[in-house]
Amino acid sequence: MKLTFKLFILIILISGCSTKPDVKVIAHRGGSHQAPENTMAAFKNAIKLGVDMIEIDVEQTIDSVVVVIHDATVDRTTNGTGAVDTLTWAYVKSLNASRSWKGDNFKNEKISTLDEVLEILKGTGVTLLIEIKEGGERYPEIEKRTVSAIQKFNAYSWTIVQSFNKKAIDRVKEEDENIKTLYLLGRSNFRDYYNKIREERERNPSLRFNYDGLAVSYKAWSKQSLDSVKQMGLETYGWTVGDTIAMKRLIDDGITGIITDDPDVLLKIVNPTLKYTSASLWLTVFYNFIFAVGSLLLIF
Ligand code: G3P
Ligand code: CA
Question: pTM, whole model, 2 decimals?
């Protein structure tokens, strides 16, 4: 058989094997449409689903414990009241964190510490995306404590720290430059910031940023801005994506990662075989195996 024909078949085989889009599936607050937000129930569910990353929010108690909760107060998501920075860890951990959950399951979830979440993610292959909601201006040394937790678990390769507070991510890098960080931007301030860094880069093409990527309200991303930000050496993330058309558009446009409350939906887009029943999945695997063996015999 002619070499060119063999190569032709090989290229078809290789291209057939690489159709899965290269995008990170990120469970927002652990996947808050699947279980109470920012709780162990959500994190365990997300791990079971097979997400790439879990996004959490951290605040700090009056006795300096970094805790996983979105709001600055416990009022919306728990049966307690008060601002987190006025409450002790003993009180916060006694609360029921299922208050905002409408389902009949997950009735009594608890608030966790950052360390407890790192502990359950250790060795799973899932990356933890830690959002520092408010930095050291409100919570003294929260950046230092977050960095210490990452160092304690030697979690450099499976954690990323993000914040809307640029000073907070700067402080993280000052503490430990090996920790990966993202700068969070809303839809309203993305355009100005994007234009600013693009101009800076044009003036100085060797300019390096003090963070590793931008996590932006997803509607602000266009194909052009995604390409341009990637060319600056930065990763690109979009939050918080709820509709499948937007998910597909962002994947086609080459985004690094999508943050969603519905990681199960995104996983099915990324890996359509998840839609199959187990019987049809096995049939597909068997068929592909026969096809691959047959093709290889034909070539060699
Ligand atoms: O990951 C970014 C996104 O979580 C920011 O919004 O309010 O859900 O923390 P929020
Ligand atoms: Ca968040």
Answer: 0.88
